Amino acid sequence: MKAIEWAKGKVRLIDQTKLPTEEVYIEIDNYEELACAIEDMQIRGAPAIGVAAAYAVALGADKIEATSKQDFLGQLKVVLDRLAATRPTAVNLFWALERMDMVAQSGKDIEAIKADLLVEALRMDADGEEANMRMGAYGAELIEDGYTILTHCNAGALATEGYGTALGVIRAAHGQGKKIQVYADETRPLLQGARLTAWELIKDGIAVTLITDSMAGYFLKGGMINCVIVGADRIAANGDVANKIGTYSVAVLAKENNVPFYVAAPTSTVDLSLASGDEIPIEERKAEEVTHIKGVAVAPDGVSVANPAFDVTPHKYVSAIITENGIAKEPYLMTLKDMVRGK
To answer: I need a labelling partner for 338 at 20 to 30 A (CA). Which of 11, 108, 119, 239 fits?
Structure first.
């Protein structure tokens, strides 16, 4: 399954706001529309946002008319700045934009730069999917036959270049013939667990049980969960993890009940420039996501709403971080550097 791909000069993606009732694909041929798709979460998940931004830069660059490289780069900066403003928490977005900017800066002439930018975006896409496969293989080592796994939000093929991070680990274990089952919590307010994770796992024939967010403690305390696996949107140098709101609560409950809590994410999600999760910017989204479900009001008019999209789980609750280069454990200040460097 590909949530996003390049198709004959356009970006083709699954409109994730329509799932699971409709499987709708849209084609986009300009960077502004793709920026809006990122903001509106038609495409979401940190790795998928990164590759979407790369493709958006390629689309924007292709339409630039300039007489000099300096003029071209000036117009390209407008594209880069627009995309940088879409989602502040997922570091993969900024990692991808930085890579694309470096390609543009090093190019010889305008037409060569345009071609090089598309090649780089395609390379990121292909490399990301291959990295997910390696990540899944490493993570499957932590999963024993008969395990029941709890996951939060969606960190599957829909959230990545393909295969998935947290769900990639689950897919790999399932592919090895291990009899596993998954508990997917609904993940309010946008129900990515209910709408997306459950949809992916059913399509793959992996046993999945949907629960509400508030049920996680019941199943963890009852000894019905063997491990928790989640994805990440940004990981600080010390191992603090920013992920979908509600992840911190699950991590604390897992620690209280002696259940391993694993994070699966590519090294592009690791931000070594941040000493701790306290420095990670947290996106605040619109109130309607909380007061409404699928356009139907579930709260009274005029109620005050807080809607942080992410929270930060301190590294002391994280049993291991699974990457495409191996599995990092404490002390994360050392092991995450090794993962990023590919050691």
So the answer is: 119
The single residue of 233, 240, 271, 311 carrying the catalytic annotation is: 233
- How far apart CA 261 and CA 254 sit, in angstroms, is 6
Angle, helices 46-62/31-39, rounded to nearest 10 degrees: 160
User: How far apart (Å, rounded) are the C-alpha atoms in residues 24 and 157?
Assistant: 16
Q: Write the Ramachandran bin of 286: left for phi over 0, alpha for psi from -120 to 50, otherwise beta.
A: beta
Do the bridges between strand 227-230 and strand 148-151 make them parallel or antiparallel, or are there none, so unpaired?
A: parallel
Query: In this structure, are residues 167 and 174 in contact, taking their beta carbons and an 8 Å threshold?
Result: no
Helix or strand holding residue 148 (H, E): strand 148-151
Q: What would the pLDDT profile of 290-320 be if each residue is shown by its tens digit?
A: 999 989 999 999 999 999 999 999 999 999 9
133 burial (CB, 10 Å; 0-12 / 13-18 / 19+) is middle
Going along the chain from its start, the domains and CATH numbers come out as 4-132 (1.20.120.420), 139-341 (3.40.50.10470)
| Residue range 29-73, pLDDT digits in tens | 999 999 999 999 999 999 999 999 999 999 999 999 999 999 999
Q: Residue 65 has which token pair?
A: 């008319």
Nearest residue to 140 via CA among 282, 308, 320, 334: 320
Residues 6+ apart with CB under 8 A from 190: 41, 289
